[in-house]
Specification:
Elements lengths: L31 H5 L1 H15 L6 E2 L6 E7 L4 H19 L4 E7 L9 H12 L4 H10 L1 H4 L8 H11 L3 H9 L4 H13 L7 E4 L2 E4 L3 H16 L13
Parallel strand pairs: 2-3
Antiparallel strand pairs: 1-3, 2-4, 4-5
Helix pairs in contact: 2-9, 3-10, 4-5, 4-7, 4-8, 5-7
Length: 244
């Protein structure tokens, strides 16, 4: 079925466990044409914020890592939760901590499918203000079934509890959350993703190439290929294969 002919999932149908929906409908580009209209909705202000954002997007890993991974994700997307809970632990220990690459997270909220996704991005951004983005990121994804739009219409109490669990000043976090302080940053992240050709989540840009729904093994292979290319002197011919 074509991307613009599919219908959003019925919110009255109970959702399966987020981790088990590794390739859910929300990961597919069904809403791409809707997303194109977002640029007009967020307007010039968001586009300007892309170049003037006062706080950089959250990044884990060495600043000078040879390979850069840009992740575009929706906190309420089951496929994104699957990556965060199943693949990302290995990505961190075997790729990020090993110094092979760093990873930067960009919000790509599919609001026409996920009514609580903006609230989740806001909750994570306000934790980031206190240096706790990644712990909050992990906690939000781990408990996706608890706060998603099919489970509740009021996700704030859940996010407030998670904020306390990851060790932020909850009072400051709540003031930030209630003010939607980082909405411009969230909008700008979405516009940036659209500009780069992102139309589904999770998507990754590595070496200026767009990849979708990567497993750990797939991501490691991509990172290794770019790392190898970066360390091969220009003009060096590949080694000849030996023949019997």
């Amino acid at each position: 079925m074509s991307p613009n002919s599919e219908q959003p999932r019925d919110r009255n149908v109970p959702r399966k466990n987020a981790v088990r929906e590794a390739r859910s409908a929300s990961s597919r580009p069904k809403a791409f044409f809707w997303l194109l209209g977002v640029i007009a909705l967020v307007g010039v202000a968001a586009l300007g914020y892309v170049t003037t954002r006062p706080k950089p997007a959250p990044t884990e890993g060495k600043v000078d890592a040879p390979v850069k991974i840009f992740e575009y994700a929706d906190f309420e997307c089951p496929g994104c939760a699957s990556f965060a809970t199943l693949a990302e632990p290995d990505v961190r220990t075997r790729i990020i901590d090993a110094g092979l690459a760093n990873l930067t997270y960009y919000d790509f909220p599919l609001t026409q499918l996920h009514r609580n996704t903006l609230a989740a991005s806001n909750a994570a951004a306000c934790a980031d203000e206190q240096g706790k983005f990644w712990p909050m990121h992990d906690r939000i994804f781990q408990a996706q079934d608890e706060w998603n739009g099919q489970a509740t219409e009021k996700p704030k109490p859940f996010f407030k509890r998670y904020a306390g669990e990851v060790g932020v000043d909850v009072g400051k976090w709540e003031s930030c959350y209630d003010a939607s302080k980082y909405q411009k940053r969230i909008n700008a992240n979405l516009v940036d993703g659209l500009r780069r050709g992102v139309n589904s989540t999770p998507s990754f840009i590595i070496g200026n190439k767009l990849y979708k729904n990567l497993s750990y093994d797939e991501m490691k292979a991509v990172v290794d290929s770019f790392a190898k290319a970066a360390t091969t002197p220009a003009g060096t011919a590949p080694a000849a294969k030996k023949t019997k």
